[in-house]
Amino acid sequence: METPPDRPDRPERPQRPARPVAGRRFYDGANRPVTPKQFRPDRSGSEFDERPARPRGRGGSDNRDDAPTDRPVGRAERGEARPPYRERSGASADDRPRYENRPAADRSIDMLFGLRPILEALSAGRTLEKIFLLRGTKNSLVADISAAARAAGIPVQQVPAEKLDGLTRKNHQGAVAFVSPIDYAPLDSIVSGLFEEGKVPFLLLLDRITDVRNFGAIARTAECLGVQAIVVPGRGAAQINGDALKTSAGALNILPVCRENSLHETIRFLQQSGVTVVACTEKAEEAVGAADVDFTGPVAILMGSEEDGISPDLLTLADVKLKVPMSGQIQSLNVSVAAGIMLFEVARQRV
Q1: Strand order in 175-179's β-sheet?
Q2: Which of 165, 168, 205, 237 has the fewest Cβ atoms within 10 angstroms?
C-alpha cells in the first residue's frame, strides 16, 4: 500500500488583533479564561502587553509563570498582634458582639450560685425568685435547700448541667438561684389590713403570665388605676427581674406582689373574705361595660395567660365572667391591654 505524499504545510493564518470590548472574555485551548496578553503573546509592543494576567484564587493565575509575587502580607505573617476590639471598630465594650456559645456576663446582684451560699440566703430570709438544682444530685445540702425553699414557697427546678453552665461561667456546684429585686407580701395580711383601714379591696390575680414585659406593663397600669396588690402563682409566672422593673416604670417597687402556691386556695380565701372574683375571658357571654356588675365593692380581677387564657379549673371558681367587646377580625387582645380595660372599668365605677 502506497503512502500518500506529504502535504505541504499550510501557512499560518495571521491572527486578527483583538479589540478591547467591554465584558468580552478570551479562552485558550483548555477552555480557560485568559487575558489579551496571554491570548496574543507574540504581539510585543501592543497595548495588551501592559495588562497583567487575571489573578485566580489566592494570588494565582492560569499561567503560573505570570502569577504575581508581590501580594500584600497579612498581619499574622508580619508577626503583629491583633489590636483590641475597641481600637479596631471604635465601639465601646458594651457594643461587643455576643456569641451563642458564650453565656452572658454574670450579674451578682440578681444571681447566687453554690450550694452553701443559697442555703445561707434561705436561712437569712432573703427573697429568691427561683432555684435551679443539678438533676440527679443527692446530698444533705440539696435536701436542706429543697426543704427550705418549699417552706418559703420558692419554686425549685431540677435541670441538666447545660442549663446551669448557660446561666453562669463560675463554679456553680450544681445550684443557681435568682434573687428577687422585690420582697413578696403575704396576701392574708394585705386583705386583713385593707379591711381594718376601712378600704375596699381592689386586687389583681394573674394566672400564668409568663412574659416579663407583659407583667411589667400590667403592674404599671394596675398601680395607676388603684390596684392594691397583685397575686401571682408560685410556679409558671414571669420572673420579676430588671426588665420587669423597667417596664413597670417603678410600679413594682410601690405595688405589693403576693406569691401564692395555689391560686385555687387563693380564690376560695378571697371569696370567704367577701371579695368578688371577676374573670376576664373570651368565653364569657356578657361584655364588660354592658353587664350590670357592681365593681364598687371588694373585687379581684382574674386574668389568664398569653397562650390559653384562664385555666378551666380556675374559671369555674370565678363569681363573674366578662369579656372585652371587640368588632375587628383578629378577636384577640394582648393580655396587658385587656387587663387595662378591665381595671379601667373598676376604677371608673369607683370615682
Answers
A1: 111-113, 175-179, 128-134, 156-159
A2: 165
